[in-house]
Amino acid sequence: MLNIFLQDGLTDLEQKGLKRTLRLVEGAQEARITIDGQKVLNFCSNNYLGLANDPRLKQAAIECIQREGLSSGASRLVCGNMNAHKLLEEKIEHFKGTEACLVFSTGYMANVGIISSLFDRDDIIFADRLNHASIIDGILLSRAEFKRYPHKDMTALENMLKNFSGYKKRAIITDSVFSMDGDIAPLEKIVALAQKYDCWLMLDEAHAFGVLGKNGKGAAEHFGLEDKIDIQMGTLSKAAGSFGAYVCGSLELISFLINQARSFIYTTAMPPGIAAASYKAIEIIEKEPPLRQKLWNNTNYLLNELKKFGFDTMMTQTPIIPILMKESDLAVEFSKRLFKRGVFVSAIRPPTIPNNTARLRLTVMATHTSTDLDCALEQLKAVGKELCLI
Questions:
Q1: Would you call 207 a catalytic residue per the annotation?
Q2: How much is the pTM?
Q3: Catalytic position from the list 85, 132, 238, 294
Q4: Fold of the CATH domain 18-47+289-386
């Protein structure tokens, strides 16, 4: 019976063009990779600053492993709280300018743990409709009343805030950079509404950390609102080129989460070598702003050329550049043809995104050369013409 159910489900996904399979990357994450045995340009990775294979991060991890071993061996509250974790948290809280910081093993675990520990059935949460799945799952686990406002629609959000009162706690939760669209939340307006209607505000900086802001601190810095955000969460697996996640805020917030966040309490702590690599990545982000400038130069060039060709890049404002196809089959076919031409760009389909919004999702890295960008543009233009998209 189980296999029949599974096969029916897989067949349904295949017929809808939604079935996914794993693809094997051989070697390190770089601008050029070998995947499924073929050498291709990589325009899929969230490795925005190209740090995932940086020798300085690898050396930091190796040295830490030699000092502290490979595994932390236990949860942080048992005996897995190691020096590398302490140093990383101190580094992040200093970098972000907050009172305290707590590191989680993944971004998913951070969002689920933070939200489900802070809110319950007596509370209400307002969230952007395009927020990451981990935010949605955290809200569902909390059992709080859940209201999703249309993407970046501040009029709709304010109407909801006016109409839903009488709850013990109210909060607005939003991504700062939306991972599939590449646009940025209107943070100034969200902060104003949170203050006007007495709401807590939680910001997910996963795709903004290391990318936005004068110093790479994220959207909170970009908008000059660092002291207006109650809960700042972000990941270390994208621009930082490492792994894990953080939450920054008040001393009381961090102490509460240490005692209540189940995804922090009931899991083995992050390996110390990973924490050390993340520490080194933040040092590089702090000390090497030209790396971030190169990312933005690459982004602006690629985006402008794609627009000239006539591609619909939606409302992106960041190194995440979607090319709208609408139909899942078309997005998959475009991706396949690009791959044969030596350019790897994933097709993104429902349920990751809303129905009828299938797309290619290009991500730019600081380590892409001008030759890489021009080669990708040449192939994108060729396939776009083949499929009558431009």
A1: yes
A2: 0.95
A3: 238
A4: Aspartate Aminotransferase, domain 1 (3.90.1150)
What is the fold, at CATH topology level, of the domain defined by 55-287? Aspartate Aminotransferase; domain 2 (3.40.640)
Answer for the pair 313, 303: CB distance below 8 angstroms, yes or no. yes
The two three-digit tokens of residue 92, written as one number: 């992040």
Q: Which of 59, 53, 132 is nearest to 366 (CA)?
A: 53
Asked whether this chain's domains 18-47+289-386 and 55-287 adopt the same fold, the reply is no
307 is catalytic: no
In angstroms, rounded to a whole number, what is the distance separating the alpha carbons of residues 348 and 250? 37
Query: Can you tell me which residue has the tokens 């349904």?
Result: 12
Interval 246-300: pLDDT, tens: 999 999 999 999 999 999 999 999 999 999 999 999 999 999 999 999 999 999 9
Q: Which of 207, 217, 222, 381 is catalytic?
A: 207
Mean of pLDDT values over 71-100:
97
Look up 151 and say whether it is catalytic: no
**pLDDT for residue 346 is more than 80:** yes
Domains of the chain, by residue range, sit at 18-47+289-386, 55-287
Is the confidence at residue 180, as pLDDT, over 80?
yes
